Amino acid sequence: MNKDKVLEILKKNIFSVVCGVLVIAALVVAFIPVGGMFEKLKGDADQHASEYGTIQGLLTKQRKLPLTDPSKSTQDDLGRFPTQKVIDAGKAATAAVHDQSQKLVDTVVGLDAKLHQPLVGDALPSPLSDSPRFRFGELYKAVFDTEKSVETDPLLKSNKAPNLRNDILKGGTPPSDAEITAKKASMWDNDFKYRIVYTNGQAMNEPDITAQFGRAAALLPEQMRVERATKFKMYVAPDALTMNPNVIGKDAPALVDIFNAQTTLWIQQDVASALAEIDKDSANVQQSPVKHLIKLTVPGTFAPANAPAPGTVPPVPAEGGDLIPIVKNYAQGFTGRTSNAMFDVVNFTLVINVDASQVPVILSMLAKNRLMDVLTVDQASIDTSAERLKGFIYGPMPVVQLSLKCEAMFMRKNTIPLMPKAIRDALNIAPPAPATPVPAPAQ
Fold first, then answer.
1. Which residue, 3, 66, 244, 351, is most buried by CB atoms nearer than 10 A?
2. Which pTM was predicted?
3. Full domain range(s) for residue 342
């Protein structure tokens, strides 16, 4: 078709051609994004890409089995896609571990409550009067008295509070020089003095009686020391167990001092009970595994190990401490325990002279059924001959001195209800949640 004919056709059909062009233009414009359509398409594409990435991540994710073995620190690989059956089995295993953990926590809390009963039940945290505070001071002093015991003291007996030295440890000391001197004087006055025969006012046999007395007096110190060694189960140094002086004065002790004295006493009672259990089958010092309590040093104030300073961390909740993860710190000791929302750790030291052959048993028995552990042990040999000259008769077996660094644990579920406000503030413990009011019954 030549050019002239094409132009002729266009001229005759110009209106139809223009309409066709307009229709084609409208169709093209309909498929071109305008305004926010482009952004919407881009957002939809990005969302689809994200969903694709999520699906790919789920398909290729490395899945782990729940950690249900307390001897392991890492989780094993699952090795397959977690079907519903596998998920249900994992949930069941996790729930079983949680139940076992809760039972363990409950057991420890129960043991702590059993071991650590308040000396005076209504003295903490806020007694209604000064009377319980005075009673605490009187009973506390009686528990440490070197002469009193449950059998002889009405106060200790009525409160079922054993004396540390006499009732729990069955301990004592060698005779002192003053006691030996007094015994010699008594022996002369009650025995040898009356053997002197007088004639016409003249002592006829005084030199002979004096010589006899001298020989008997020379043997007396060893006899008295042997008697003491067979009377007690262990020696207890006079300053081995110390009292908190703030609770034994004439005034009613402050609540903070009572709480500090109480927690210190709990550790002293735990250690004394452990030593007594170790020696329970022995008749006297010479047979006892633990022969001499030299020193038990416990902080005079409730000073938990590694407790954060108030204000440096958010307040610790008074309830629900067992739900907060516990951070281990092995720089503190091999247990890694530090004070946290569930329990407080208190460090103390113990120095004892023991039968060298019984050291492993003694170390294991100190922690048996008690919330305390031995962290470090220093051991030194003891010259038993030199100790005998000082009055300490340990028996024929080699003896060593153990210097122990230990830790005690107190569960906050039991201690927080006894803490005065000043103690809670010092430990950054939040106030207990107010009790939920019980709605009144409908009328």
1. 244
2. 0.76
3. 232-426
